[in-house]
Amino acid sequence: MRNVLFVASECTPFIKTGGLADVIGSLPQALREHEKMEVRVILPLYDEISPEWRSQMEHCASFDVPLGWRNQEASLYMLKHNQITYYFIENTYYFTRKGVYGYYDDGERFVFFSRAVIEALSHLDFKPDVLHAHDWQAAMSVALAKILQPLDQLKTVFTIHNIKYQGIMPLETFDDFFQLPADHIGGFEWNGMINCLKSALFHADKITTVSPSYAEEIKDSYYSEGLHPILLERAQDVVGVLNGIDTKEYNPLTDPALPVKYRSARARKTENKVAIQQKLGLPVDGEKPLYIIITRLVEQKGLHLVQHILDEFLQEDVQFIILGTGDHEFESYFSDAAYRYPDKLVTLLTFDEGLARQLYASADFFVMPSKFEPCGLAQLIALQYKTVPIVRETGGLKDTVQAFNEVTGEGNGFSFTNYNAHDLLTVLRYSLLVYHQPEQWTSLIKNVNRSQFSWKESAHEYAGLYESLKPQYV
Question: What global pTM score does this model have?
Answer without folding.
Answer: 0.92
